[in-house]
User: Fold this.
Amino acid sequence: MMLLRSAAFALWFALVTVIVYLGTLPALLLPRIVVVRASRFWSRATFFGLKIIAGVDYEIRGRVPQGAVLIAAKHMSMWDTMGLYLIVWDPAVVLKRELLQIPFYGWYLRKAGIIPIERTAGASAMRKMIAKAKDVLARGRPILIFPEGTRKRPGAAPDYKPGVAGLYSTLGVACVPVALNSGLFWTGRHGFIKKPGHIVVEFLEPILPGLKRAEFMRFLEGQIETATTRLIAEGSKL
Assistant:
């Protein structure tokens, strides 16, 4: 039954994606906010199907940050990008530059105003990312980054990259850690399997600016991993 429901949701997801992407192509020529709203509609439609077809719902805990702030989130599945983009108003998401080359998807990412990063460019990539981040904050938008740079299965050893510390120390803004347990329910190879359950996204207490890089990294990882472990244990009991 779970496999059948997962397949049905995959069809729903494909249908919604095609309709939204093709139906809102003119938005690429309009002000950026039109694409932002179209993207949020896509997430809502996707999550409607996820709940009705696959039995996966979600819950928000903690205070959702707004405005010029840095948000650092655990990353377990594709759900995280869509979910946080919907929950937080108009975040600039730090994503690998290669995604911009994907037809349609990349066009919308560019128009929405993401912060692209070239992982192999070293210090040059960091300088470009920080310059773009400063511009984003000046416009009053939050920045969303996944500090590990890739998705991790529940229980996998953490691997936090230094990019988030570079943003934190340079930008001088608070950083809001985010824990979640989406990997328990959006699972399988390429995330095909959807297990019925309740995804929890928890916004933790902000880390105020001023910490040294090493101290910040230890604190950030400790906060996110401790809360994530708790959410995984909670979700596994259901």
